[in-house]
Amino acid sequence: MSVSVVFVHGIRTSATMWRSQLEYLAARGTDAVALDLPGHGARMAETFTLEGALETIDTAVREAATRGKVLLAAHSMGGLISTSYVGGDDPPPVDGFVAASCTAFPRGLALAAYRLLARRFDALPDRGQWLADRVLDRTLPPETRADFGAGGYAYDAQDVALASLSTLDLLASLHRIQVPVWFINGEFDQLRINEKMFAAAVPQSELYVVPRTSHLVTAMRPAVFDKLLELALLTLERETDPR
């Protein structure tokens, strides 16, 4: 049975962060779609809400499920929200989940400190974009450098999106997940902190750590990420459909 891929972006960025993966899947002949969550990308003028984000993911997943199996692949904030979605009380039609750079519980002092840092960064001239550009110029390869910000940066949605993550009961969601999960982190990713707990909570999970890589694993090591995406696709393509 064919497999379609639904991509969910991280905080501040948009669907354009997945351009490299979309090109890879197009060459492979695999259907794929990359979403813009509320307040991001083409939907920048909208207000971000957790409910709206979940609805966006669900709509795309259910549409893809009409054609066959669904592999949901998500990064950072999108990965945390997608973890809650895949592990919901009523399991959605997702057959596999690639969770990139999203193995930390967004709560307590860590989340508060991150929100404070983001606010201070936002208060810099040009909202700190000059500094972000410098970091991206030095860490991302030329072939993906433009992708991360091509859809614009959702600075106005950032704080409300971060605050909404604290309402997620991710541990409960993880324990409910009954499909294969591939956790993928960069070696230097700050969100690796709870990766072993995340992996232990999902019996059908595998954890991959990409050496010499930051939080932006999809853009920093696109070829490596595509290989892991291929692993997930081959796994689902070889399995019989349980539904």
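Second entry:
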Amino acid sequence: MIKKIIVFTALIILIMPAVVFAGSGKTSNNISGRVVMEKVQKESSPKTTHAAVQLDIIEKNGTQKIRLLEMWMEKDKKGLNRTLIIFRKPSAVKDTRFLIIQNKGRPDDQHIYLPALRRVRRISASARNKSFMGTEFTYEDMSTRNTDDDTHTILREENYNGYKCYVIESVPKTKGAYHYSKTVKWVAKDKWIILKVEMYDTDNKLKKVLTM
């Protein structure tokens, strides 16, 4: 059986906050992965953010889905994020709203508004690994991962799409606590943004690729 690899391409119209991870590992200039990702968090997480996003979901066989959405994010007094996502297209998901409230020391709260039903539903912990709005993303993918949950190593430095990047591997500290065995991220050194993320399944095989 051939396992498909899902490729996501997020086209940024205004600004989209990066998915943030922390690191350990060091490079030739003695900077650690954690310091790199702290810079990412600082530079990519203003107090308020508004983004218009086109999400192109391309499967290995070439099948493509397009989602248009708007995203608002703000930080509360404790520095925790509150994110609202509203889907604009296609019509099947238009006006669906997704609210994420980041918590310290416990999983984020997630709520989804379904316009066809005119009701709000809380996403339970047991449903976090299910498909998010018909995409290959899961609800857990949409949450903010705690920076201390993983062990992070800078694998190398290399060029990617014209940017000099740190390549960082992130492995969960607790086995089985996350539905990926590891993620590998390309971080632009001068911009401190994540340009690419590879996600590996529990068999350590590449499952998804997210590019910004």
